[in-house]
Write a structure and sequence with these properties.
4-stranded antiparallel β-sheet; 3 helices; alpha+beta; single chain
Length: 133
């Protein structure tokens, strides 16, 4: 099992704690026991690895569009991010049911983007670092 902390920016720390319940021990993603689990304050997403079709490292993003638990209106993807530095996008084979939504993808703003991607690749899930492509 590998746990990857989600990066929390100094300027967004208080906002994330108040709005989403984010603390350093409640902001992480892990890959274990055939699932990817993302915890961000009061929010959690648990997806079987068999539902993940590919991954892609993206970013950096604009601060206003990156911080918090977000859902894109246009694409319906969800993100868990504490800084605008970037994240790993997980594309699902079919829209994945999360709370009351069906999401086609999830972004996770982990501290170690490359390590998270490498672990997914080691499990046979294809992906790329789009920052260098």
């Amino acid at each position: 099992m590998a746990r990857y902390p989600i990066r929390i920016g100094n300027r967004s720390r208080l906002l994330l704690r108040v709005a989403f319940g984010v603390t350093p021990d409640r902001a992480w993603a892990e890959i274990a026991d055939g699932v990817v689990r993302c915890r961000f304050g009061r929010f959690e997403l648990v997806a079987p690895l068999t539902t993940v079709a590919r991954w892609r490292i993206e970013g950096p993003w604009r601060w206003i569009t990156a911080i918090g638990v977000r859902m894109s209106i246009r694409h319906r993807d969800v993100s868990f991010a504490g800084s605008p530095r970037g994240g790993v996008r997980l594309d699902f084979r079919a829209p994945f049911h999360w709370t009351i939504f069906d999401v086609p993808a999830a972004y996770v703003g982990v501290e170690d983007l490359e390590g998270f991607g490498a672990e997914l690749a080691a499990l046979g899930i294809p992906g790329e670092d789009a920052r260098t492509a």
